[in-house]
Amino acid sequence: MDKDLENIKTTLDVVCGKWKAVVLYKLTSGTLRFGEIKKQIPLIKHQTLIKQLKELEEDGLINRKSYPEVPPKVEYSLTDYGRDLEYLLTHLVEWGNEHNRLSYRAEKELEET
Amino acid sequence: MDKDLENIKTTLDVVCGKWKAVVLYKLTSGTLRFGEIKKQIPLIKHQTLIKQLKELEEDGLINRKSYPEVPPKVEYSLTDYGRDLEYLLTHLVEWGNEHNRLSYRAEKELEET
DNA sequence: CGGTATCCAATTGGATACTG
DNA sequence: CAGTATCCAATTGGATACCG
Question: Hey, what domains does chain A have and what are their CATH numbers?
């Protein structure tokens, strides 16, 4: 019976993109427009954000509401399914906070820049 | 003040390897030898496991104790630092369980095999 | 048995250019 | 403003072979 293993992989598959968890976390505070998300995550690249949003939508974690205006306006929000991640997301933040030095590998990565 | 963003990334960096969270989860039950971990995660490849264990060790999440015997015997266990992840890991399992259909993308991936 | 050392294939993040 | 469509560079998982 290794359902646990499968369950972990299911969750990781959904949360582990370079910025996915961060995007989801931002959306826990409420609906955001594309540009707003981008502004709140300065380091993310335009194209990257689009890709990750699309995957999150395909995975059923977020809603995408597009207004037929010019200029376009698109809003993203969590689905119920995605909202169930809220608790997990706060724990991601907390663990990172309690161990707030970066990981050894992340440090190494930064030293190179 | 976007410490949250940084914290999430810190945590993800440590947990997001194809099998890292699973390995950590297995180790929450106690110390395991290399071969035992491999047996408990049948799909993982020898070389992949070695790489991920090394990274987890570098990140300070697990201890590696090698016995100078022939044949070799190596045991892995969680550090205190890694043990703090336990709570998070159980939540990964729970979310996956409550949403136990695979993600849409994961399903697609499976259909191809 | 558990490990190193190489090399390779696949994935993924991101750069660039163009659209309504 | 938000989105396609390409293409590319970097990373990562894994295959293979050999070692103490």
Answer: 3-112 (1.10.10.10)
